[in-house]
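Morning. Coffee machine broken again, so started the prediction first thing and wrote up yesterday's gels while waiting. Chain of 171 residues, entered below exactly as on the submission form.
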Amino acid sequence: MCLLLGATGVGKTLLLKRLQNILLKANCDLGEPPVTLPTVGTNLTDLTLRKKRVTVRELGGCMGPIWPSYFVDCYSVIFMVDSANITQISSSCVQLLSVLAAEPLQTASVLVLFNKRDLPCTMTLGEMKSLFRMDDIIASAPQSITTLELSARSGEGLQDVLNWLDSLQPC
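Came back before lunch.
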């Protein structure tokens, strides 16, 4: 099980729909982004990759207080951040630190995704990593942490996410 976490409106549902489209279509034309609604509750999505099948459980951002009840039997976490929403950055950082501190996730692989890089007001990956103090987090966290930037809307960076999922080893 892979958990997909992040604040409301960061693009979690769009990410899953885009990943499914890439895996289902032989060509790379993703077309227009599908319409999405804020997730209330949880969505389960199976992704069939080259080496394995991964079940991704997306938890709505509004469910943050009960995310820990889903941490058991989870071997990986994708944590999404809206890099265009400056007002959400500090709370996203606190949420990420809380996820990394959770006992059941101490051996999980973690992918931190900085989304919405296609928007003109987006901070660069370097700026985001600096604000989050990612170097310090990576140095002190027991988890293996990878950071990527992407645009779930345009599709830029989606193949990197699939490659990361495909490279995971169950705990």
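The chain is about 30% helix and 25% strand. Going to sketch it on the whiteboard this afternoon.
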